[in-house]
Specification:
- By secondary structure, the chain is an alpha/beta fold.
- It has 2 domains: 290 residues, 7-stranded beta/alpha barrel; 98 residues, no CATH class.
- 45% of the residues lie in helices and 13% in strands.
- It has 18 helices and 12 strands.
- The strands form 3 sheets. Strands 1, 2, 3, 8 and 9 form a 5-stranded parallel β-sheet that branches. A 5-stranded mixed β-sheet has the order 4-5-7-6-10. A two-stranded antiparallel ribbon has the order 11-12.
- A hairpin with a 6-residue loop joins β6 and β7.
- α2 packs across α3.
- The longest helix is centred in the N-terminal third of the chain and has 29 residues.
């Protein structure tokens, strides 16, 4: 039976917040730094998205459809592409036309909603599914959650939503002696198949490629193909998952990262039994070997491979609790602008910036963080949330129609009192 390589790339950029001061609360309700968002997106489009998409397209044509890749594009980055770099959307549409690219479903706003609000989670997934269909004419059948966050419960919810498979991290503390290089199933609903990231082989490209102190530097396509072939001597598949920004942004063009990608398919195809496939195709070709038991959420972040990068300290937990406390008010308000901001403020990046883990993973957090300290990120976010909650309260106030409840202002030093207005 053929062995399989799955190349999956995450594409995401957050809506970065502007410097929002205490004195802005109640006066200005625009929270986002359009200049920074446009500048960064345009830079990464020129360095990564456009040249990488061109190269992927060339490789698909060159190898006549035997080279296949998988993407997930968050709604957050799609919205910014449409606003600041529409040519990137067009280049992804060209890839979609090849029939050799699979697009995955996920939360629209790259949010942590799967951990907090099942209703919001489902709504965002449906929104994202529809967006992918509108842009590329396909309905995703495979799901990847924000930062590959997964648990038995989350997987069961995804299965109930009709998805056939889900991607997550091949975390050692979950797998134990088992290999990530097989297909597994959800422990609660075996209809959902689970593809696990091989983090060693993925991180060799994503993080170690340009590290000249690494014992295996320089990493060449033939060397890497040999590692893949060795991993597949006894196993079924190898899942290589990484940020798309690896190409040209995290690993600069001067490192040779594009040359590596250009030559990789040919080197892998020298091993006649190894094929490139997308998750949906893998699920058709390979049989699961066992259920995967994940009682507590895992992710692909940091050494712990858990959710502590986003909900690991009091700052993060307070910020998240304040945001989601407004969910019902936002949705009952019917205010589309309020709902749009609610979704943008859910982006996991805002909470990642508040992470206080500066030990083994400190360099990673510092690289992606626009703030000097986690406390600056927290204060800025909470100033935004203070204004956002004021808007929610205003939106939730009754109109004063007959039969409703209105709030009467009492100038005496006592609490506001509710006064029932009787129908005439």
């Amino acid at each position: 039976m053929d062995k399989t390589i799955c190349l999956y790339f995450q594409v995401h950029q957050p809506h970065r917040l502007r410097l929002y001061r205490f004195f802005d609360i109640g006066k200005s309700s625009y929270y986002f730094d359009d200049f920074a968002n446009k500048t960064i997106l345009r830079r990464i489009a020129e360095r990564c998205y456009l040249p990488a998409n061109r190269l992927i397209n060339e490789l698909i044509v060159k190898y006549k459809g035997t080279f296949r890749v998988t993407y997930s594009l968050t709604g957050s980055v799609i919205d910014q592409f449409e606003k600041f770099a529409p040519e990137v959307i067009e280049s992804f549409k060209e890839l979609a036309k090849t029939g050799c690219v699979e697009f995955l479903a996920e939360t629209y706003s790259h949010s942590l909603s799967a951990l907090i609000s099942e209703e919001e989670f489902k709504e965002q997934v449906k929104l994202h599914d529809q967006k992918i269909f509108t842009l590329f004419g396909v309905r995703p059948t495979v799901f990847r959650n924000t930062e590959l966050i997964y648990s038995d419960k989350i997987g069961a919810i995804v299965a109930d939503m009709g998805y056939s498979a889900m991607l997550t991290e091949g975390a050692k503390h979950v797998l134990g002696w088992k290999s990530p290089n097989f297909l597994y199933t959800n422990a609660l609903n075996p209809r959902l198949k689970i593809l696990l990231k091989n983090f060693n082989l993925s991180d060799d490209i994503a993080f170690r490629f340009s590290n000249q102190s690494w014992a295996n530097w320089p990493l060449t396509a033939d060397k890497y193909a040999g590692w893949l072939a060795k991993a597949l001597e006894k196993d079924d598949l190898v899942n290589i998952f990484m940020d798309y920004e690896t190409f040209g942004e995290h690993q600069n063009v001067s490192t040779g990262i594009f040359d590596f990608l250009k030559h990789l398919p040919a080197e892998i195809m020298k091993y006649k039994t190894i094929k490139f496939d997308t998750p949906a195709e893998i699920c058709k070709k390979h049989q699961p070997v066992a259920p995967l038991h994940v009682p507590f959420p895992i992710s692909w972040a940091d050494e712990e491979r858990d959710t502590s990068a986003w909900i690991g300290n009091e700052l993060q937990n307070e910020a998240i609790a304040k945001l989601y406390s407004a969910e019902l008010k936002v949705k009952n308000s019917g205010d589309t602008a309020l709902l749009a901001d609610f979704r943008k403020l859910q982006e996991s990046d805002h909470f990642y910036y508040m992470c206080t883990k500066f030990f083994s993973d400190g360099a990673v957090h510092k690289y992606f963080n626009p703030y000097e300290t986690p406390y600056e990120a927290f204060i800025n976010y909470m100033n935004v949330i203070s204004d956002f909650l004021l808007r929610c309260d205003r939106a939730a106030q009754p109109t004063g129609e007959p039969g409703g409840i209105i709030i009467a202002e009492d100038k005496s030093p006592v609490k506001k009192r509710a006064v029932k207005k009787v129908k005439p």
